Amino acid sequence: MRPNVPLHALRAFEASARHLSFTRAGLELKVTQAAVSQQVRMLEDWLGVPLFRRLPRGLGMTDEARALLPVLSDAFGRIEGVLKQFEGGRLHEVLTVGVVGTFAIGWLMPRLKSFREAHPFVELRLLTNNNLVDLAGEGLDFAIRFGDGKWPATQNARLLDAPLAVLCAPEVAQRLRRPEDLARETLLRSYRTDEWLRWFEAAGIDSWTVSGPIFDSSRLMAEAAMQGAGVALAPARMFTRELQAGMLARPFDIEVPTGSYWLTSLASRAMTPAMRLFETWIVAEAAA
After folding, report:
1. Quick check: is 26 in a domain?
2. Per-residue pLDDT tens for 244-273?
3. Backbone angles phi, psi at 20, to 5 degrees
4. Is 233 part of any domain?
5. What is the value of pTM for the model shown?
């Protein structure tokens, strides 16, 4: 039976091919130039093909070496990445989560400290979006998104309802006595065209054509409202701090439900330990 190729010979070849030098490869691997050369020769004998042309100044790779190098570099890189996860005597896991910006700032960020304290060996990476997300294409473990939870090929856990309420700067709120008073204000809109119409219906007033600026983020819309640019219709529970600090005001108690925030993942994706920890934590936090 043909013996397995020694791992140190593969490592010696990979380093030599990157540096095109046995000497520099030896420095990286902390062995002598002669040892590297001997290990590469062993690999060449095992393969039955030459991997390098020995030149007066350095090395030249053969076609066989060019075919072998990227495969080994990728394999050693993967091995190194996994081994680094065991630093400190525990398995470190990377967890990548795409989050709607409004939810990230308004709800998730104030609670991240508790997750980190509970699970210090999970390296959480957050990417914000405006509810348009491709779990597979973006390499996400989870996405937190807003809607009805009916996305194809996903498994979804509902986190929070997020009914919309009228939010505006305190000075604007002083002149809003009745819902009809909104007719004299600039009404800020999202890309969902029916939200103000649904709020008018919930308020029991006749609707009118709304023509204010359109925003792709409730966070941006609320920022515009805080600066007096108009009146926003946004999920009030995502702006608790701004309301408590007096940066925003809520002149009416009327709310209109339009969807919820959901934790979503690919149905075909097996849950990793880090994914299970995060799901358990965030569902419990939302329930609390």
Report:
1. yes
2. 999 999 999 999 998 899 999 999 989 998
3. 50, 40
4. yes
5. 0.68
**How far apart (Å, rounded) are the C-alpha atoms in residues 213 and 149?**
28
Domain match, 169 and 237 both: yes
Domain boundary among 84, 110, 125: 84
> Has residue 159 been placed in a domain?
no
SS3 assignment, position 227? coil
Range of the domain at 204: 164-256
Q: Are 265 and 85 in contact (CB under 8 A)?
A: no
- In this predicted structure, what is the pLDDT of residue 106? 94
Nearby residues of 85 by Cβ (< 8 Å), 6 or more positions away:
91, 92, 93
CATH number for 148 = 3.40.190.10
Q: Closest Cα to residue 125, out of 156, 99, 155?
A: 99
pLDDT at 131: 82
Burial class (CB in 10 A: 0-12, 13-18, 19+), 26: buried
| CA–CA separation, 65 and 14 (whole Å) | 9
pLDDT band for position 57 (cuts 50, 70, 90): confident
pLDDT in tens, 67-77: 999 999 998 88
Mean pLDDT for the chain overall: 91
Q: Would you say residue 2 lies in a domain? A: no
